[in-house]
Structures are given as structure tokens and as C-alpha cells.
Design a protein that fits this description.
single chain, mainly alpha, 13 helices
């Protein structure tokens, strides 16, 4: 391909397929993973993302022609996602669609991967009564957003946090060329920082819980943005300054928030709306991913750098405030319907 307009079409199709498969795989992973293991499974999934950045950086460094660059990344995406065809469907998907026979077949497949012996044919699925008179349709999902205000409220807060995550994450990843002397070194160090974040976020979430960990990381990110405003060189004649160090800390925090919000959204959203909540949240993240590089790359040359960094600090702090009004999910069973979300919030007490 040597046509720029054809490139735009290919890029659109790649993005469409990539985010559909990535989001769908993550939802399946969370629904197939027991509550006690989700934190570690989430870390593994996000670490694969960081490994992908290293592969993409290597392709960009060694393959300089854009058409072959896209070919190489497409082949990697095809090979690494071939396992989708071997994954079982989530039993919760079948339950919400009132297909209990298929849910049991999925449970049997999962049972075959373990040493557990259960009589699944004679097993009664406890949550089947919740969906007895319910149809899983788009109209039904929209109606339940209006019928259950807590579901809509939580979804809107999650959309905002995702918006900030997309803005901050891609602000860094589109700005390494201006932050560091070498763009490829910046991306490589970014991937290392992300590995640290995705591994380090596991004990943080385990100790503090989903809610407190997210609030802490969002406040820390706001502080990091503010600290990076002064022009402080690390040593005389060095290209490294305080902003570069804060950028590395910032990408660790942004990646930690990135990992945390994925896990939190998967557990906050009920099975009936998990796909739509992820779609809405990911959509706002895409908006943020456009605005973030604009703020960093376009505002910096025409204003003082305190302006974009101050904006990011404010948005991060507002995300922490929004997180305060969400519930802790690490000690609760996953909601099946919007009614479960409303019930979950009735007895919840907001505490730091």
C-alpha cells in the first residue's frame, strides 16, 4: 500500500478490530476468573499491553517504511490473537441471555481444565431467577440505565475516569520525543515503567482495595503534574530535568490507574451492561486520547507549561473525587443486572 487515503482506511479497520478484540478478551478474562484471582489476572493482561509497546517500538525502529510497518504490526496482532478461537464463552453471558444449557456446557469445559468433579447437569444456576422475565436487548439496556439511577451514576463517573486515563496516558506516549533526548529510548523506558506499574499495582490494590487504590493514584498523579512545572535541571549540562523524572513517575501512575480502572469497571458494571459500559468508557477514553496530545504538544509552545500540566493536575484530582462516590468491589460478588447495582449501593457507606 502506497496510498495515504488507503492507509487511513486500513488504520481505521485496524483500530476497530484491535479495540473490539482487546475489550472483548478482557471482559471474558474477568468473567472467567474468580474474584480472588482477578487482581493478578488483571496485572497479567496489562503486562501483555506493556510487552506490546516494546514490540511496537522495535518495529518502528527497525522498519522505517510506514506500509511495511503496518504490515508487521498486523501480522503480530493476527498471531497473538489467534487464541480467541480457543476461548470458551463466559457462562455469565449465557445466563444473562437465559440460555442455561449453554451456560452448563461452558461450565463443563472450564471444569475439564481443573481437577474439580461436579455434577453440572443436575446443578441449578442460582441467578437464573433474576433474568427469568428479562430480555437482553439494546432497548432493555438503555431502559435500565434510566430505571436504575445508581447504574447510570456509576457509569458516568467511570466514563470520566476513563477520559482522564486516555488523556494522561496518550499525552505521555505522544510526547516522549519532546520529553526525552531520544524518542525510542523514551518509549522503551515508558514500557519498563508500565511493567513496574502493572506489577506494583497488585499489592497496592490488594492492601487498599480497588476504590482507595484508585483515589490514591489519581491524587498522586495530580501532585506529579504539579511538581513537574518548575524548570529544574538535574545537573549542569544534562538534558535530564525534573520534568523528565516526573514524566517517568507520571507514566507509572497513569499505567497504574489504567490497570486499576479496567479491573474496577469490570467489577462495577453488571453482566447485563458490562459490554456497553466498557464501550461507553472506552469511547470517552478515545476522546481523551485525542485531547491529551493536543494539550501537551500544541499548548506548550504557545503558553507556559504550567497551563497544560495544571489542567492535567485538576482533571486528575476530579477523577479522585469521582472515585470517592463509587463502591468498593473487591469484597463483593459481581452484579448480574442493574437491579443488583442499585441494591449494592443502598447499604454502602462512603469512607476514605
Amino acid at each position: 500500500c502506497h496510498n495515504y487515503y488507503f492507509l487511513l482506511v486500513i488504520r481505521y479497520l485496524m483500530g476497530l478490530g484491535m479495540y473490539l478484540s482487546a475489550t472483548g478478551l478482557y471482559i471474558m478474562t474477568m468473567e472467567l476468573t474468580p474474584l480472588a484471582q482477578r487482581n493478578c489476572a488483571n496485572s497479567w493482561a496489562q503486562s501483555c499491553w506493556a510487552a506490546g509497546i516494546i514490540i511496537a517500538t522495535a518495529i518502528g525502529y527497525f522498519v522505517r517504511e510506514w506500509n511495511y510497518m503496518f504490515l508487521a504490526t498486523s501480522l503480530c496482532h493476527l498471531i497473538l490473537n489467534a487464541q480467541i478461537f480457543l476461548c470458551p464463552e463466559s457462562p455469565r453471558f449465557y445466563v444473562i441471555n437465559q440460555d442455561m444449557a449453554s451456560a452448563k456446557r461452558s461450565l463443563k469445559f472450564l471444569q475439564s481444565l481443573t481437577t474439580c468433579e461436579l455434577d453440572i447437569d443436575d446443578m441449578e444456576i442460582a441467578e437464573s431467577g433474576k433474568v427469568e422475565n428479562r430480555q437482553q436487548t439494546l432497548r432493555q439496556q438503555i431502559a435500565e440505565y434510566l430505571a436504575y439511577p445508581p447504574l447510570l451514576f456509576e457509569t458516568l463517573i467511570q466514563m470520566y475516569i476513563w477520559f482522564f486515563v486516555g488523556m494522561s496516558y496518550f499525552s505521555f506516549n505522544f510526547g516522549w520525543g519532546s520529553i526525552f533526548p531520544n524518542m525510542y529510548l523514551g518509549y522503551l523506558m515508558s514500557s519498563v515503567s508500565e511493567f513496574i506499574a502493572y506489577i506494583g499495582v497488585v499489592p497496592v490494590i490488594k492492601f487498599l482495595g480497588r476504590r482507595r487504590a484508585m483515589m490514591l493514584m489519581l491524587v498522586a498523579a495530580a501532585i506529579s503534574f504539579l511538581v513537574s512545572i518548575p524548570d529544574v535541571p538535574l545537573s549542569q549540562g544534562s538534558k535530564w530535568d525534573l520534568e523528565g523524572i516526573c514524566a517517568l513517575v507520571g507514566i507509572v501512575l497513569a499505567s497504574g490507574i489504567f490497570a486499576g480502572v479496567y479491573l474496577w469497571t469490570a467489577e462495577l458494571a453488571p453482566t447485563s451492561h458490562r459490554g456497553s459500559v466498557f464501550s461507553l468508557s472506552s469511547g470517552t477514553a478515545r476522546v481523551g486520547s485525542f485531547l491529551g496530545p493536543y494539550i501537551f504538544n500544541n499548548l506548550r509552545p504557545v503558553t507556559h507549561k504550567a497551563v497544560p500540566l495544571g489542567i492535567m493536575a485538576l482533571l486528575s484530582f476530579l477523577g479522585a473525587v469521582g472515585g470517592f462516590f463509587l463502591v468498593e468491589t473487591g469484597d463483593k460478588e459481581t452484579a448480574l443486572t442493574g437491579e443488583d447495582v442499585a441494591t449494592r449501593r443502598k447499604s454502602y457507606r462512603y469512607r476514605l
